[in-house]
Amino acid sequence: MKSFLGFFVLGCVSFCLAQGPAPIPLWPGDPPGALGREEKDIPTLTPYLPPPERATGAALVICPGGGYATLAPHEGDHYARWLNELGIAAFVLKYRLGSAGYRHPVMLQDAARAVRLVRARAAEWKLDPRRVGIMGSSAGGHLASTLLTHFDLGNPGAEDLVERQSCRPDLGILCYPVISLSGPFAHRGSRDQLLGKDAPEDLAVALSNERNVTSNTPPCFLWHTWQDKGVPIENSLAFARALREAGVPFELHVFEHGGHGIGLGTREWDPDKRHPWTVACAHWLRQRGFAR
Fold this sequence. Notes:
The protein is α/β, with parallel strands linked by helices. Strand 5, helix 5 and strand 6 form a beta-alpha-beta unit. About 35% of the residues lie in helices and about 15% in strands.
């Protein structure tokens, strides 16, 4: 009997580990702007917590890419596991998508709520609410850069304690990001999924985030590759130029090799094939007091 129970417990633990962390709904009831109650209508946040002995108390909300039409797993789960190695708590955001009928500002609402939620539950997760950043790749980089430039400081009178929290990230990491939705370097697919194909040009201009950087924009780490044919490198260059003009600290890395969507270096989890950007970013995070 004892051996059976031991086998049963071990099996349950193995099953739970294989299943990974459990997602948390961003809102306790129907999210604002919900079009239904299916999985695609419920934005969630999945926590990945580092071992307590390695934890730095810092956290990053991760916005996977996918053109606002899907979410790339390797730009979520893989990033989270890598950040855990650095002692950083990671929270993978499943935001609502254009392919499910959603349009701006729903995605921004989801990203803002995610940062607020991490801050509201910081004590539970043993986090420093003053060290909560955001990270995004491709279209997820557009969402991250939108929050970096369109944040608010919360509503102190809100009944919902989460909504009292600021959604301003303390820093941003932008991986081959979509930045512009207007002009020669705009990513048309992301624009159409975010705004709709008939969206007015002035809305696309307003959400071209190189135009929205101010001196209060958080410090950023950006990287891109010269070979990227999916999202032109000019997106990162334009955002970095805007940061420079606003006097915001940033680090920009441009690599010659690598196509769009390479994540940590490959779409499979393989620590031996990590791209050099991960080394540079880890160094930057240490300088910012986020990483070990």
